[in-house]
Amino acid sequence: MYNTSRYILILFTIICLAYTMPALYWLIFEKHIRIPVIEYSSVSNEFLFIRFNNEIPVRTNSNGDTLTKNKYEQLLPLIYTNQLIRNGNMPDSIMGVHTDVHAIHFNTNRYKYTPKNMFVHNIGLYPLFESESDRVNLELPPDFFRINNSIEFITASTNDINLEKSKLFNQVFINKGFSFPAKIIAGIPTTRKSIDEGYFIVDNTNKLFHLKMTKGQPYFEYIQTPDNMKITHIECIDFKTREFYAIIFDSNNNVYVLIQDIYSLIKLPITDFEQEKDELRISENIFFKNITTISNKELKVWIIDDLYNTIAFHNEILVSKEEAQFGKIFSVLFPFEIITKNASSSYKNFKITFSKNILIILTNFIFTILYISILLHKKQSFKKNFTEIVLVILFGFYGFVGSLFFPNKN
Fold first, then answer.
1. What would the pLDDT profile of 95-108 be if each residue is shown by its tens digit?
2. Domain end: 85, 106, 127, which one?
3. Are 85 and 62 within 8 A, CB to CB?
4. How many helices and strands, by DSSP H and E, does the chain display?
5. Are 167 and 267 in the same domain?
6. In this structure, is residue 74 part of a structural domain?
7. Burial class (CB within 10 angstroms; exposed 0-12, middle 13-18, buried 19+) of 93
8. 10 Å Cβ neighbour count for 252?
9. Sheet strand arrangement including 231-236
């Protein structure tokens, strides 16, 4: 009975150490790895880079020539417009087009997707704004809708279902062939947007629909998608250019933009993108779009024109924290790590990651020899401590500490 309790305590210690010690190691030794900044010059038609050497930015062009800060900004007039105007260095024309500062600002938009965008809690209640209001600003409606076996509008102040409005919208859903319940409801449920375009809804059979309210009446349209396409996530966009409604992700990690008004889906020319792990950035200007994907190991940049054709492409390998010096030392010290925090999600996740470094066998062997030496010094029997030796062989540092904390006293 004594040994059973002791082994339980040792295993509990191993689990606690596998959770706390790696976290403490990363807290003390992990260094932030700066990702290069990559832009495309509308002046020289080449990629420009900002890389960091000991936190000091180094600006270069595609040939590797070092650029001063002023020269770098002059090559990117669509990004540093205000600074160049202040310095008197703003060109009169860019790519043969007369410089129009208002047009530059209007056509400059940025969007960033991280996996946390996908893994968020949703309460399932959505405000449906009036899309053609006579008011200058959007106003929050008195009710919220939900979609289960039907669409229902619930008055916020009384918590009662608005039967008349629910029946009106529900009939439109049925007439358009909507299959309840909804798998995805995506929109911008706030008044802090320039215009309301309602919601994009995926039904139970993976069909895509567009819902909004105009003059108090339902607007509900079916959107044609590629055959067998399974939508996994939708990000609605509020760009000033009104070029597309949303960015849509499917189960094959393809990314599409949904063109405004005509409901055309255009596939972005990105490859090897994993929506549950990687980051996606889209920035656009008056001439082209910069599409950047960032994974744990690689950064890729596509420059595309207004027809979504690729103008230029660049990729480079990134050093992950596991490949950095402090990461390599970690993989030699700790045989495995228990993680409850996922950088890609706001939710708690229980995950065990094992060291892939072959040298961990040597580390465990060293701790085993050290433990055996302690047993010899204390003149204890190997036979009575066989289980402890096995635990040290398997769990290395964790087993070594656990066995010392709760020694065999028989």
1. 999 999 999 999 99
2. 106
3. no
4. 9, 24
5. yes
6. yes
7. exposed
8. 10
9. 231-236, 244-250, 255-259, 265-267
Domain range for 24: 2-31+327-405
Unique residue bearing structure tokens 């396409």: 229
User: Tens digit of pLDDT for each residue in 205-252?
Assistant: 999 999 999 999 999 999 999 999 999 999 999 999 999 999 999 999
Domain count, the chain: 3
Verify that 42 and 120 share a domain, yes or no: no
pLDDT tens, residue by residue, 313-337: 999 999 888 888 888 999 999 999 9
Q: Which two tokens stand for residue 370?
A: 């050290």
Indicate whether 165 belongs to any domain.
yes
Residue whose pair of structure tokens reads 């961990």 in the numeric block: 360
Q: Report DSSP state, residue 36.
A: P
- Is the confidence at residue 344, as pLDDT, over 80? no
Q: Is residue 131 part of a domain?
A: yes
Reported as type and span, the H/E element at residue 298 is: strand 298-304
Question: Does 181 sit behind a cis peptide bond, omega within 30 degrees of 0 on the bond before it?
Answer: yes
Same domain, yes or no: 250 and 163: yes
Give the three-class secondary structure for 266. strand
Distance CA 143, CA 85 (A): 48
DSSP 133-173: -SSSS----SEEEEESSSEEEEETTT--B-HHHHHHHHHHH
Question: Distance (Å, rounded) from C-alpha 22 to C-alpha 277?
Answer: 21
In a domain, 322, yes or no: no
6: left (phi over 0), alpha (psi -120 to 50) or beta: alpha
Do the Cβ atoms of 20 and 29 come closer than 8 Å?
Answer: no
User: In terms of domains, do 368 and 294 share one?
Assistant: no
Q: Whole-angstrom Cα distance, residue 90 to residue 94?
A: 10
Q: Is 177 helix (H, G, I), strand (E, B) or coil?
A: coil
Examine the domain organization and report whether 159 and 89 are in the same domain.
no
Domain end, chosen from 317, 337, 360, is at: 317
The more confident residue out of 63 and 384 is 63
Note whether 142 and 49 are same-domain residues.
Answer: no
